[in-house]
Design goal:
Blueprint lengths: L1 E4 L2 E4 L1 E3 L2 E3 L6 E5 L6 E6 L3 H17 L7 H17 L1 H12 L3 H25 L4 E4 L3 E9 L2 E5 L5 H14 L3 E5 L11 H7 L7 E3 L4 H10 L5 E5 L2 H11 L5 E5 L5 E4 L5 H13 L11 E5 L3 H14 L18 H16 L3 E4 L19 E4 L6 H4 L6 E7 L2 H9 L3 E2 L1 E5 L3 H10 L4 E4 L14 E2 L2 E2 L4 H8 E9 L2
Parallel strand pairs: 2-6, 9-10, 9-12, 10-11, 12-13, 14-15, 14-20, 15-18, 17-18, 20-21
Antiparallel strand pairs: 1-2, 3-4, 5-6, 7-8, 8-24, 13-23, 16-17, 19-22
The chain binds 1,4-dihydronicotinamide adenine dinucleotide and ligand LM24SWP5.
GO molecular function, one term: betaine-aldehyde dehydrogenase (NAD+) activity
Pfam families: Aldedh (PF00171)
Keywords: NAD, Oxidoreductase
């Protein structure tokens, strides 16, 4: 990445170990969502460029040393990547704040360290991995090898671009695949560095490639490309369906982490001293642009008034402002288009008769961020769980409190959704915690906590929230082909 004029960065593809412009020199602009200023011009790939990048990854897989080098050597290079990310932590966190609009403090203390951990974790995990052996009396011995699949297409979103890309890159690389990354076009800055970081870490040319452009063109071309063997995707459910259709002809493997509309269920025996601040995080972290957001807050009617009063006060106390400022807890939405989508739900809420508790308009802002895509933390109460604001993924700082009376009713509302990524339960009753955790149809349930991540644990969604699981051996199963070798012993 270079700077072309004051503060405007030039971002190119990273192909076969070097930066490259598009074959037709086309570019697109990226804006800072806090100000609407242009912060980067980015190479926009043609279909021919996508061919080239996928071919580079193919050649690096077929004839390069990456998949044949020892696991120890490969993993040492991946760990070096993690170290370089930590050495460049401030720079990457600044880019993430600039590009996504998320608070720098969160990127610096949580997401960039997690990105480094994603790489290191899978390097360690692969080195320690065993295999299966099945002796057949004394006559034959079966043993299993886990070999890389080939070229991995990683199509990644804009809400946590660097962290979520490394979450796929770590296991894909550790397993010995070569990679084509297609970052989200709205937020390409941090991810564009991964090629050069890989090169600096000693990873051979052609193993980590990055290609930029619109999802509908470049994402589609990567998905259809016959040199690409699998697609790991995080993003919207609609795009997941398109990827599945476009990848069908080349019979790709898919792993999808898609949308969510999590129920955050607060029972009357919950410890509100913990439940309120964590529910605020679950609602407004990254301006609610988190697939795991607890955007449907189910509250038992006996504590409804107390909960609303405390939650309102905590939402109003959140510091909304410049993402680069240390004290900022919530920044803008990522783009004008997304801002308009989120704002449209304020009209829908009104039409649906939802009761506004707080928010619903633009916050007071310092002069330099007056043009940013800001919305106040917004809270509604609605007693109709079928309302659109209770059903659709808004992906913004807009949450709805839904009252309930009994456990059965809470479960019924929690499961009345197309999504099933995660759920949250607040209770001091252990038996109830288990009952509700078993009853909610979602891939992760957090009890008296939220977004606590052990990278060994399965992570992914039921229903329209995804296909497959990431994490620990689940990621490795996706990024490897299991091979059984059967040896006659006599
Ligand atoms: N699960 C999650 O973490 C995320 C969920 N979303 C949800 O999706 C909604 C829409 O956001 P979008 O930016 O439109 O998400 P998206 O799912 O379209 O974008 C994610 C990635 O997919 C790529 N892409 C788009 N169309 C493609 C196609 N046809 N083939 C291959 N790749 C393609 C994009 O370029 C980007 O890299 C959000 O409002 C939110 O509800 C968005 C981002 C992340
Ligand atoms: O912690 C993870 O591995 C994944 C987190 C996912 C998100 O933050 C997201 O997609 O919004």
């Amino acid at each position: 990445m270079t700077t072309v004029e004051a503060n405007v960065k030039e971002v190119q593809h990273f192909i076969d170990g070097g930066y490259a412009a598009s074959s037709d020199n086309q570019t697109f602009e990226v804006k800072n969502p806090a100000t609407q200023e242009v912060i980067a011009v980015v190479a926009e790939a043609t279909e021919e460029d996508v061919e080239k990048v996928c071919k580079a990854a193919r050649l690096a897989f077929d004839s390069g040393p990456w998949r044949t080098m020892t696991v120890a050597e490969r993993c040492a290079k991946i760990r070096r990547m993690a170290d370089i990310i930590l050495e460049r932590k401030e720079e990457i966190a600044r880019l993430e704040a600039l590009d996504v609009g998320k608070p720098y403090s969160h990127a610096f203390t949580a997401e960039v360290p997690r990105a480094a951990h994603n790489l290191k974790f899978f390097a360690d995990f692969v080195e320690q991995r065993g295999g299966e052996t099945y002796p057949m009396e004394d006559a034959f011995l079966n043993y299993t090898r886990y070999e890389p699949v080939g070229v991995a297409g990683l199509i990644t979103p804009w809400n946590a671009p660097f962290m979520l890309t490394t979450w796929k890159l770590g296991p894909a690389l550790a397993a010995g695949n070569t990679i084509v990354i297609k970052p989200a076009e709205m937020t390409p800055l941090s991810v564009s560095l991964l090629g050069e970081i890989a090169k600096e870490a000693g990873i051979p040319d052609g193993v980590v490639n990055v290609v930029h452009g619109k999802g509908s063109v470049v994402g589609t071309a990567v998905t259809k490309n016959t040199d690409v063997d699998l697609i790991s995707f995080t993003g919207s459910t609609a795009t997941g369906k398109a990827i599945m259709r476009n990848g069908a002809d080349s019979l790709k493997k898919f792993s999808f982490e898609l949308g969510g509309k999590a129920a955050n269920i607060v029972f009357e025996d919950a410890d509100l001293e913990k439940a309120i601040p964590v529910s605020i995080q679950a609602a407004f972290l990254n301006s609610g642009q988190v697939c795991l957001a607890g955007s449907r807050i189910l509250v038992q009617r006996s504590i409804l008034d107390t909960f609303i009063e405390k939650f309102k006060a905590a939402a109003e106390a959140l510091v909304v402002g410049d993402p680069q400022a240390e004290e900022t807890k919530m920044g803008p939405l990522v783009s004008e288009e997304h801002f308009n989508k989120v704002k449209s739900y304020l009209d829908i809420a009104k039409e649906e008769g939802a009761q506004l508790v707080t928010g619903g308009s633009t916050p007071d802002l310092a002069a330099h961020i007056q043009n940013g895509y800001y919305l106040q933390p917004t809270v509604y109460v609605h007693d109709n769980p079928k309302a659109r604001i209770c059903q659709e993924e808004i992906f913004g700082p807009v949450v709805t409190i839904i009252p309930f009376d009994t456990e059965e009713e809470a479960l019924q509302i929690a499961n009345d959704t197309d999504y099933g990524l995660n759920g949250v339960v607040w209770t001091e009753n252990l038996k109830r915690a288990h009952r509700i955790s078993h009853g909610v149809r979602a891939g992760t349930i957090w009890v008296n906590c939220w977004f606590v991540r052990d990278l060994r644990a399965p992570f992914g969604g039921f229903k329209k929230s995804g296909i497959g699981r990431e994490g620990g051996h689940h990621s490795l199963e996706f990024f490897t082909e299991a091979k059984n070798i059967c040896i006659a012993l006599n």
